[in-house]
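Observation: inputs received (chain + 4'-deoxy-4'-aminopyridoxal-5'-phosphate).
Thought: call the complex predictor directly.
Action: predict_structure
Action Input:
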Amino acid sequence: MSRIFYVNGDFVAEEDAKISVLDRGFLFADAVYEVSTVLAGKLIDNKAHLRRLARSLSELAMVAPCSDESILEAQHKLIELNTVQEGLLYLQVSRGVADREFYYPTNTPSSLVMFTQSKSLLDNPAAQTGIKIISIPDQRWARRDIKTVGLLAPCMGKQAAVEAGVNDAWMVEDGFVTEGTSNNAYIVTSEKQIKTRQLGHEILSGITRDAVLRFANEAGYSVLEEAFTIEEALQAEEAFITSASTFVMPVVNIDGTDIGSGSPGPVAKQLRKIYIETAMSRQDL
Ligand code: PMP
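Observation:
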């Protein structure tokens, strides 16, 4: 059975899930998105994702396609129709369909599309071994706090990682790590302090970042929200990333140099465990 997609109020088969060539998401990347995790058939931290969606829309003066309640109802129906137990729900809002002009069209309804991807997330073999990354220059635009679909620079980064035979890339700007291509970046210093870049226009405010920093504080770790360099990361005891789809994932090698022992460290392991246990024990949020 083929997957069911959501397109502007309709639940349709993939071959019928179509948008116009004049959609501004297609022409200008004038669209924002969210990816929520599904575990045991339930959405994880979805309310926070919808809050961030509202903020992205507002920063771009884009009208919401419908109420949060309607989005949530459609999300639940899509998960049910596709019998997703574990995986991801992708949601994208574009400024809609209008003849090609740079300025924003008026009175054009925004468009909403969604689809699910069933995927094993908990049983990720990379969590046992940790991932290897390279560092690359951050070539993205200046408003990375807005979650737009303009993702060509991260695509180039992931491709560079694949070609280098590693899993991902950390982006560096003015000598400091901003974030991973699709995740937030952390190190654990020799003083056992967790360091991750402060929020601002330079990085996305990760929903998983927010949860993990809360858990880290509760577990008694000292957390410093401050930019760090690749050199600092190479000297660190541990490194890791967070995102909705990877939770907490240890980074064991950067640019060919092992971090710490070269295997997943205790802090990343503990935070991953807490994150997953908390997510599994909560109701659909
Ligand atoms: N930074 C970037 C650039 C991302 O694309 C993502 C994934 N959406 C994240 C951080 C992590 O965000 P979240 O924890 O909300 O998935």
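Thought: report the result.
Final Answer: The mean pLDDT is 97. Residues 35, 179, 182-184, 204, 206-209, 242-244 surround 4'-deoxy-4'-aminopyridoxal-5'-phosphate (CB under 6 Å).
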